[in-house]
């Protein structure tokens, strides 16, 4: 790892005489999981201005989290083919420090996979130390397709990808399905996974080969009307609503959960919508109440003949597994992330 004062600084530890640099912000064709715009630039903004204004009504904590994370790269990844013998990641991240409930491999890490015959094979993860946000790292690789999951809880100011000067390099045109939209809280965003590729929406992507767009943000999953409008405009194959953890109280949740579902259902009358209950490892009573509201929304949708599924999250775990799954009362580690992703994959088959 080489740390820099500026991303424009020449490298001292990595020989770059024969490196060809690709500016990722100028290559939307390489980026998956971001909202597509007409621009030739990638900005990673997932919460529009209207959502950033609407969240102010939900208090200082939610407002602060939104300002910090509205363009985080959770769920975003690079996909490309190269026969270069090395890849150099040269990055300038917004934040220098880690984030609660996770390590730097997750919050600031670039999680790298090689793809062989359709199978994702984990290579390594690259992340800076605490207090550092501008860095470069070189990784040896073999010819083929590469997937790099971007940091879960950080924003990219600049990202350069270096390959051997004469190497082949191109994007991958393999999008078989319309994306699946995830709208959720910190768990859905990827908090507490060991690395960014192990957030459950990313594991789901590898299992199903579906593209995903992860519109999740800690403390900000409030069934925002502006986010309902955004999701309603996206061309997708399904929507996953993991909306319980950030509810202000039971009454507010009861008045907003079905309303949010119906807003999306009106825009996507024939698409699959999956409703998720909460992860609740310390038997917090309010979460039981929230789950009942989710189930009521689900059963009424079933009665109307709508294409809807319910994922009972706590039903995926035995009581004696909690000490292995739970990081705290609600957040789950990699084992838990895999269980959730696997269960979701079965629901979309």
Task: Describe the structure in your own words.
Helices cover 28% and strands 24% of the residues. It has 349 residues and is α+β, with helices and mostly antiparallel strands. A hairpin with a 2-residue loop joins strand 6 (110-116) and strand 7. Helix 6 packs parallel to helix 7 (250-267).
Gist of the model:
The protein has 349 residues and is of the alpha+beta class. It has helices spanning 49-54, 60-69, 104-107, 186-189, 200-208, 225-233, 250-267, 285-303, 322-325, 334-348, and strands at residues 2-3, 19-23, 31-32, 77-82, 86-93, 110-116, 119-126, 134-140, 144-149, 156-164, 169-171, 180-184, 212-214, 238-242, 272-276, 308-311. Helix content is 28%, strand content 24%.
Q: Which outline best applies?
A: globular
The amount of helix comes to 25-40%
Let me know the average pLDDT: 93
Helix count, per DSSP?
A: 10
Question: In percent, how much strand structure appears in the residues?
Answer: 15-25%
Number of β-strand runs: 16
């Amino acid at each position: 790892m080489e740390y820099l004062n500026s991303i424009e600084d020449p490298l001292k530890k990595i020989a770059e005489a024969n490196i060809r640099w690709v500016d990722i912000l100028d290559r939307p064709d390489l980026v998956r999981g971001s909202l597509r715009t007409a621009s030739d630039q990638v900005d990673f903004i997932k919460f529009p201005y209207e959502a950033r204004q609407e969240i102010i009504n939900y208090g200082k904590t939610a407002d602060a989290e939104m300002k910090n994370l509205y363009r985080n790269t959770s769920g975003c990844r690079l996909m490309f083919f190269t026969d270069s013998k090395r890849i150099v990641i040269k990055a300038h991240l917004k934040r220098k420090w880690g984030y609660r409930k996770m390590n730097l491999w997750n919050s600031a890490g670039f999680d790298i996979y090689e793809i062989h015959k359709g199978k994702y094979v984990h290579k390594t993860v690259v992340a800076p130390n605490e207090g550092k946000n501008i860095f470069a790292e070189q990784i040896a690789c073999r010819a083929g397709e590469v997937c790099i999951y971007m940091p879960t809880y950080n924003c990219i100011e600049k990202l350069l990808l270096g390959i051997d000067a004469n190497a082949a390099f191109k994007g991958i045109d393999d999008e078989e399905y319309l994306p699946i939209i995830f709208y959720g809280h910190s768990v859905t965003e990827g908090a507490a996974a060991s690395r960014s590729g192990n957030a459950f929406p990313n594991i789901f992507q590898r299992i199903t080969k579906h593209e995903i767009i992860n519109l999740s943000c800690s403390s900000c999953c409030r069934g925002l009307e502006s986010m309902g409008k955004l999701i309603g405009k996206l061309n997708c194959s399904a929507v996953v609503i993991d909306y319980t953890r950030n509810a202000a109280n039971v009454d507010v949740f009861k008045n907003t959960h079905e309303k949010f579902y119906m807003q999306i259902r009106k825009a996507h009358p024939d698409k699959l919508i999956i409703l998720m209950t909460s992860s609740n490892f310390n038997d917090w009573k309010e979460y039981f109440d929230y789950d009942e509201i989710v189930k009521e929304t689900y059963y009424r949708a079933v009665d109307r003949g709508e294409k809807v599924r319910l994922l009972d999250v706590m039903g995926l775990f035995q009581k004696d597994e909690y000490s292995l799954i739970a990081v705290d009362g609600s957040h789950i580690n990699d084992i838990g992330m895999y269980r959730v992703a696997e269960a979701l994959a079965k629901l979309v088959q």
